[in-house]
Amino acid sequence: MSARKPHGQSYADVAAKPPPKSDSNVTPAVPSDVIFKLLAFTAAMVVGPIGMYFLTVNTIFGGNPTYAGIVAAVTANVVLFAYIYVAWKEDQGDREEASESNSKKAQ
Amino acid sequence: MADSEYAPKFAPFFSFAGIAAAMVFGSAGAAYGTAKSGIGISGVGTFRSDLIMKASIFIELIRSLIPVVMSGIIAVYGLVVAVLISQALSPSSNLSLYTSFMHLAAGLSVGLTGIAAGYTIGIVGDAGVRAYMQQSRVYVGMILILIFGEVLGLYGLIVGLILNSKS
């Protein structure tokens, strides 16, 4: 199904020609470190707050659920700010790379 | 389990209504925030198709996912309050009407502030991500507005926790 038949050509013509070069890019998918980063934050967001709640409710706070709830909310915000920090650092590294490549181009 | 004027049979109904309100409204707000900011992120591909081949698009994508993470936190707030209320209930104990209305208030406060926060995050996230693709200096302002929007949900959680500790 890769080679469609244009008007005014026989199927033999179409089959003989190489398939038209597509400008859509499918080879470089998302880099694996980005995937792992996103997966780690997803896991932290899913497991972290509720896990901290059940971890601390009977061990540290002696069955007081209010403090354990506060710990769960704080954990969720810690994950959020860690994500913002990672996104921040990512950009700085990228800008340094970009400026390096720009200076190389200038030379 | 004796009935009384202060602890009638129907009292647990309001507690369970509080649990459902916390979870349902909080998730509704989170869903709106995720969907609306997701529309903005999806617009990146068509908006900056010159960038899509370069590696820097991933940095932009990681940054533009921040509204989605914040919407997830709104749902976590609802989840925390729902778990808190449900741990206070048991079929063998007598629940007073005061406690059950308090549970309803806690659930409604966290759920409806979750809707408010999710609505804010959705609209600001959509517009902010689109603006960030044009001008990356918008980033700090977008993060600040998003945090102020998310704090609305945090206020509801604080009130819910305080109400829950009064029983």
Automatic annotation (TrEMBL), chain A:
User: Sorted alphabetically, which InterPro entries does this protein's record hold?
Assistant: Vma21 (IPR019013)
One Gene Ontology cellular component term attached to this UniProt record is: endoplasmic reticulum-Golgi intermediate compartment membrane
Tell where it localizes: Endoplasmic reticulum membrane; Endoplasmic reticulum-Golgi intermediate compartment membrane; Cytoplasmic vesicle, COPII-coated vesicle membrane
- Supply the alphabetized keyword list: Cytoplasmic vesicle, Endoplasmic reticulum, Membrane, Transmembrane, Transmembrane helix
Can you supply a Gene Ontology BP term from the record? Answer: vacuolar proton-transporting V-type ATPase complex assembly
Annotated region (Disordered) at 1-27
Superkingdom of the source?
Eukaryota
Signal sequence interval, chain numbering: none
Q: Which residues cross the membrane?
A: 34-55, 67-88
Keyword check for tRNA processing, yes or no.
Answer: no
What is this protein's record name?
Uncharacterized protein
Automatic annotation (TrEMBL), chain B:
Name the SUPFAM superfamilies on file.
F1F0 ATP synthase subunit C
Function of the protein: Proton-conducting pore forming of the V0 complex of vacuolar(H+)-ATPase (V-ATPase), a multisubunit enzyme composed of a peripheral complex (V1) that hydrolyzes ATP and a membrane integral complex (V0) that translocates protons. V-ATPase is responsible for acidifying and maintaining the pH of intracellular compartments.
Q: This protein is called what? A: V-type proton ATPase proteolipid subunit
Q: How does it sit in the membrane?
A: Multi-pass membrane protein
Q: Name one GO molecular function term.
A: proton-transporting ATPase activity, rotational mechanism
- Report quaternary structure and partners: V-ATPase is a heteromultimeric enzyme composed of a peripheral catalytic V1 complex (components A to H) attached to an integral membrane V0 proton pore complex (components: a, c, c', c'', d, e, f and VOA1). The decameric c-ring forms the proton-conducting pore, and is composed of eight proteolipid subunits c, one subunit c' and one subunit c''.
Primary place of residence? Answer: membrane
Q: Which residues cross the membrane?
A: 12-32, 65-89, 101-126, 138-163
Q: What is the protein's species of origin?
A: Penicillium steckii
Q: Which NCBIfam families match?
A: V_ATP_synt_C (TIGR01100)
Residue stretches making up the V-ATPase proteolipid subunit C-like domain = 18-85, 104-163
Q: Which family does it belong to?
A: Belongs to the V-ATPase proteolipid subunit family.
